[in-house]
Amino acid sequence: MEIPYTVKPRPDTGLYNAKVGIWLFLASEVMLFGAFFSSYILLRVGAPDGFWPDVATAWPHGLLNIPIGTFNTAVLIISSVTVLLAWASLKEGNLPKFKKFMAATILCALGFLAIKSYEYNEKFTHYVIRLKDGTAVTGHLDIDGKSPRFWSLATVEAKKLESIKVHVDVPNQFRYPVGFKHETHEEAEAKTGGHGGGHGEREIKTADIALLQAFIPKTGTFFAIYFTMTFLHGLHVLGGAIVMAYIAFVGDGMWKTDPERYTNRIEVAGLFWHFVDLVWIFLFPVVYLL
After folding, report:
1. CA within 20 to 30 Å of 170's CA: 60, 85, 185, 218, which one?
2. Is residue 126 helix, strand or coil?
3. 2 in a structural domain
4. Same domain (yes/no): 118, 223
C-alpha cells in the first residue's frame, strides 16, 4: 500500500506529510527553548552583577570567550548556506554537487562541536577564587606546570598545598573578570604582574581562600543555565549532523527510485538545521554578551 502525500501536498494543509511533521516538531522545539530563554532572562534581570554578594546567585559578566563564540556563530551560518545549496543541487538533479555541499555542512557541524568542546575544557580548568578578605579573582591554576580540572578547596587541602599559583585573568576588550571590573587593562596588569598576555601570576595561600570552584554548573546559576542551554543545543547539532550524514551517504539509494521524495527529505532536514542555527543566533548574544 502506498502512503499518500509523501510527495504531493495534502489538500488541507498544502504541504506534504513530512513537512507538516517537521513544522509541528519545530513548534514543540520553540516551546522547549522558549522556556529556557525565558528562565534565563528572568534570572538575569533579578541577579546582582559580578560574583557578589553570593557566588551562587550573582551574575558574572565577561567570563565567556566571545571571539570563540563569534567564530562558532559564523560556522553555523555557513552551514545553513551549504545545506540550502545542497537542496538546490538536488532540485537541479546534480547528486555529486549535493554530496559536496552536504559534506561541507556536516564538517561545519563537527567543527562547531569541536570548538564547543574546547571551550568547555577551558571552563573546566578556569576557576573563581574567593578570598577571606572579601576580594575575588578568576584564572587558571598552575600546579607543577599543569592546569587541573574540577578542583575545589577541599582538593587543595587534601593535597596539603600551602599555596597555589594562579594565572589571574586581567581585563581586555572581551573580558571583565571578577575583581577587576572597574580597572583598566594596564592597572590590572600592574596589580597582578601581567605582561600583555591577558594573565598575571599570583601566589595565593591556601589559608586565605574561602572558596575555590571551577566554571562548572554547580558553581552558580549563570554557569548552570549556560551549560544546560549550550549542551542541549549541542545535542541538536549532533543529532542533525547524524541524520544528514545518513540521508546523504547511506540512504541515497532513494535518489534513483524516488528522487522527488528524497529531495523532500533534504528539505525537511534543512528546515531543522535552519532552526538549530537560529537558536544559536539568539543564544550567543543573550548568554555571551548580556
Report:
1. 218
2. strand
3. no
4. yes
